[in-house]
Amino acid sequence: MVKAIVGANWGDEGKGKITDMLAETSDVVIRYQGGANAGHTIINDQGRFALHTLPSGVFYPHVTNIIGNGLALDIRKLVDELHSLTEQGVPAPNLIISERAQILMPYHVLQDTYEEERLGGKAFGSTKSGIAPFYSDKYAKIGVQVCDLFYEDRLRERLEAALSIKNVLFEHLYHKPALNADELMEQLLALREEIRPYVGNAVGFVHKALKEGKTVLLEGQLGSMKDPDLGIFPMTTSSHTLAGFGCVGAAVPPTAIEDVICVTKAYSSSVGSHTEPFVSELLGKEGDELRRRGGDKGEFGATTGRPRRVGWFDAVATKYGCMVQGATQVALTCLDVLGYLDEIKVCTGYEIDGEVTDEFPVTPRLMRAKPVFTTLPGWKCDIRGCKDYDALPQQAKDYVDFLERHIQCPITMVSSGPKREEMTYRTSKL
Ligand code: GDP
């Protein structure tokens, strides 16, 4: 059976922790979309790790980790990540890189960087990891698959075809130097040797595993709001962040996904640029305090180190986020962070042009939305590390009940700290 662990919001919901936790009882963990542009923070008995490309199952020797065909594979970054794990004393993981995955090239990173420069003040706030040019090239059919690395004539042909387009852009739109196919070939062939032992038929492996009754976890990156179709376009990412895309990016049959665990924080955070709509945002001192107290080391991007924008829990966005993911259950993380507050607000509606709605709108309407808050009492104590849901203060349980009623999806896990074991389990009241 397949379980998907995906984000209900803007990313950084704590999917890494939930994946690491559930990987213990799983056989396969697959990354199926996105690239190294976001990170998952994992804290376990082996240390603190920020994973960008590797699936969060790498800490368990019994788990096979797969880089699915849907991922944007930056080979250099993957190799560096593998080395950093071994340096921290983690045994080499079981890893399969799908031979169908496409390669994120140095020219994608350059194109992303040049384009952000060109856009100046109108830039999207890209992490400049090359993700948008990568996916554009995939759908324009000028991408290069991992399998192409092993057929050098074909590789050269495909690189030359891609560069004939890129170099026009680089020289004439961006006024930058052209790239040379020979140098690129050389770099790629060197990188090929580093990943050679891992490259394989991931599609066949996954289908066989499912036939044998194995448990497969799909690990999503970012969240619903960042999906290019159902999110806050165009302030989205360039790959689909929905569980449903796992059927393509991890090659699992649609009917095999039995459980969609949607992860959401007990407050909101978004690493996006300041031009993005973020209706329940907390600014000023209050925002600074939540940012400082959030996550395990404050709310700062795992990949970029950028301060994340923070806000109150947005029930409008999260209800929609869970709906489009097809969530079967919700894991609520970071409840412990809110223990310092006298009162906690929840955004339960958006006021748009004088009307209040709880339906998440399209972007032009979202840009006009103002938050409608309901205020709840805080619990004013430290619940960090709590492992028994019943032992939580009544106000904390009331807060969770309130969120569940508004998002209309069963909250079954409530996380009380960043560590693997800091988790409570709850019976839904829906
Ligand atoms: P992901 O991309 O969805 O995996 O999320 P990130 O790892 O980028 O961000 C989540 C942050 O919250 C990380 O710093 C985690 O260590 C931390 N975290 C996860 N769950 C909890 C929790 O229940 N409490 C606290 N305080 N931090 C948590």
Structural write-up:
The protein has 430 residues and is α/β, with parallel strands linked by helices. It has 3 domains: 2-98 and 199-260, 3-Layer(aba) Sandwich (Adenylosuccinate Synthetase, Chain A, domain 1), CATH 3.40.440.10; 102-195, Adenylosuccinate Synthetase, subunit A, domain 2 (Orthogonal Bundle), CATH 1.10.300; 262-425, Adenylosuccinate Synthetase, subunit A, domain 3 (Adenylosuccinate Synthetase, Chain A, domain 3, Alpha-Beta Complex), CATH 3.90.170. Helices cover 31% and strands 22% of the residues. It is built from 12 helices and 20 strands. The chain has helices at residues 15-23, 75-87, 106-119, 131-139, 152-173, 181-195, 202-211, 246-249, 284-293, 315-325, 363-366, 394-407; strands at residues 2-7, 28-31, 40-44, 47-51, 64-67, 72-73, 94-98, 102-103, 199-200, 216-223, 257-265, 268-270, 309-311, 313-314, 329-333, 343-352, 355-357, 370-377, 411-415, 423-425. The strands form 5 sheets. The protein has a 10-stranded mixed sheet, sandwiched between helices. Strands 14, 16, 17 and 18 form a 4-stranded mixed sheet that branches. A hairpin with a 2-residue loop joins strand 16 (343-352) and strand 17. Helix 3 (106-119) packs across helix 4 and helix 5 packs across helix 6 (181-195). The structure holds guanosine-5'-diphosphate.
Quick rundown:
With 430 residues, this protein is α/β, with parallel strands linked by helices. 31% of the residues lie in helices and 22% in strands. α3 packs across α4 (131-139) and α5 packs across α6.
